[in-house]
Amino acid sequence: MTDIPRAPRAATSRRNMLFGTAAAGAALLAAGCTSNENNDEGKESAGAEVADSKPGKKVTIGFAGPQADHGWLNAITTQAKNRAKKYQDVTLEATEGSNDNATQVGQVETLINKKVDVLVVLPADGKALTQVGLKAMRAGIPVVNLDRIFSSQQAYRCWIGGDNYGMGLNAGHYIGEQLKDKKNAKVVELAGIDSLELTRERTKGFDDALKNYPNIKKVARQAAEFTVESGQKKMSELLQAQKKFDALWNHDDDQGVGAERAIKQAGRDEFLMVGGAGSKRVMQAIKDDDSVIKATVLYPPTMAASAIDLARALGQGKGIAGMAEYEIPAHVTLYSAVVTKKNVDEYLPIGFT
């Protein structure tokens, strides 16, 4: 790729800047978006401004997400609100969450009409809210698309979210390493909602990881619905069908509450269990080490706090620390760390309830 002379930033209109941004995604760990302690020298030499915690240009951020009817979604809203409070120069306009697409579209349109500086949107359905994302971008309001992605990249300036494939991959590798010396090991999977692409990505990552362990066979899979009730029902079915296995991967710690009830009712403890998402309850169980739960794979709700950081940087026309670019990246994919007894104390503070 050849070098292209850079046009002066002041000559670029806000609307053209939004739609002219390079589409290539940058996968990185979204930590330290607001700190420039480690890269001041590089930033100064590049001429880029870096968003930091010092008060700057005032920014009004509109936030719209689904109804907080799930532990992880509740944590998303909490993370966004708490992060915004840390900045003297940020005003957060948050809507009341809704799982109804038409209602959420109306909420985002209200924020557009209020002329917020930046929008952070976690859509109940990415495809259904794509048009309102496009409307905001065309109005000159940059959109930070959180987790559930819009169907057009023109509908957002930056996407930040979890790595569903990586979540399954890391769960599979952890289980594989625990069972690599066991002959004819058997594992089962308690998935989420099968109609969601994220569930299919998690399963694919899990299956791909297990291919590295020829001694391990996945003998059963049930799809639940990310609820306690469905987790208990589907786990009961797995336990009845499989009289003995060595490991269970559960995609979601909230539905895991029901799964654990079924396990206790069945009196089974011959296997290890790996959770998904990273609830505080599961992390505490890992630390106590008195149940089948030995690990959980993160899908960090801290992404909402990082989305506020990115929105603030956008509103102030700045880049982020640790990168030489003038602008924030187009895509930020978070890492799905595996939490075990060895590192649980490090991650407990970000566990959600």
Automatic annotation (TrEMBL):
<dbReference type="Pfam" id="PF13407">
    <property type="entry name" value="Peripla_BP_4"/>
</dbReference>
<dbReference type="InterPro" id="IPR025997">
    <property type="entry name" value="SBP_2_dom"/>
</dbReference>
<feature type="domain" description="Periplasmic binding protein">
    <location>
        <begin position="61"/>
        <end position="318"/>
    </location>
</feature>
<dbReference type="InterPro" id="IPR006311">
    <property type="entry name" value="TAT_signal"/>
</dbReference>
<keyword id="KW-0732">Signal</keyword>
<comment type="similarity">
    <text>Belongs to the bacterial solute-binding protein 2 family.</text>
</comment>
<dbReference type="InterPro" id="IPR028082">
    <property type="entry name" value="Peripla_BP_I"/>
</dbReference>
<protein>
    <submittedName>
        <fullName>Substrate-binding domain-containing protein</fullName>
    </submittedName>
</protein>
